Amino acid sequence: MSEKIVRFNVAQRLEHFAIMSLFTILTVTGFPQKYWSAGWAQSFSSAVGGVETLRLVHRVSGILFSVLCVYHLLYVGFFSLTGRFKLTMVPTRQDFADAIRTLRYYLGLESHGAKFDRYDYRQKFEYWGMVAGGLLMVFTGLLLYYPVFFTAFLPGQLVPAAKVAHSNEGLMAFLVVITWHIYNAHLSPDVFPFDTAIFTGKISRERMHHEHPLELERMEAGNDPARRKA
Asked: Per-residue pLDDT tens for 188-218?
């Protein structure tokens, strides 16, 4: 049996599970409202108790998602400012160099691809896209939920603008997840049919050597500050 290495701690796995569950609920309850005139949307709404039930579940899930976003930002901010762990998701110049080297490798212009650290440029791109999209959804969702409160000090035109942004960002996030994320977590030849690392917290040494060789080198040298969080 291959050696297993702990890559994600319990808090990180629970956070991922919560985000995955809430994202699924928000998608399932949001799309029937976005495409209300479609027959499938009306059938689904009737099956779960009507549009008021959809709205209630969507709003409760949205509030929980907002709380989770605030928790994540406070968690990362507190532990990074106190030096408990390194901000490994922050893009660096090396990420741009790695992206170019990877492209050149796929084109046959390099003998081997880039050597990645704890997170590669694709994971950072997805993470920051999720953070930006999540904050947009939280702000527009709150504005739509409390329009009277917000329009007391903000222009009223923001309400219809928030509705368009909330609806389209939700659709874009869904498309990104079912293409980019599903490919990386399920369909990539390296992990097919299922990457269990975010659920078990463990990854094989072979995959670490292949996907995160720089992090593995630090771990084995006993010098890996990023692992203080993991």
From this structure: 877 788 888 899 999 999 989 999 999 999 8
Amino acid occupying residue 122: R
CB–CB of 2/206 below 8 Å? Answer: yes
In angstroms, rounded to a whole number, what is the distance separating the alpha carbons of residues 36 and 38?
6
> CA dist 145 to 59, 98, 162, 172, Å?
8, 42, 11, 21
Burial class (CB in 10 A: 0-12, 13-18, 19+), 65: buried
* Those residues with Cβ within 8 angstroms of residue 109's Cβ, 6 or more apart along the chain or in another chain: none
> Pseudo-torsion of CA 175, 176, 177, 183, nearest 10°?
110
Taking each helix axis from N to C end, the angle separating 10-34 and 51-81, rounded to the nearest 10 degrees, works out to 150
**What's the rounded Cα separation, in Å, for the pair 55 and 168?**
17
pTM of the model: 0.86
- Residue 112 makes CB contacts below 8 A (sequence gap 6+) with 105
The torsion angles phi and psi of 223, rounded to 5 degrees, stand at -135, 80
CB 32 within 8 A of CB 54: yes
User: Which residue in this structure is represented by tokens 């209630």?
Assistant: 56
Q: Which residues is 5 bridged to in the sheet?
A: 203
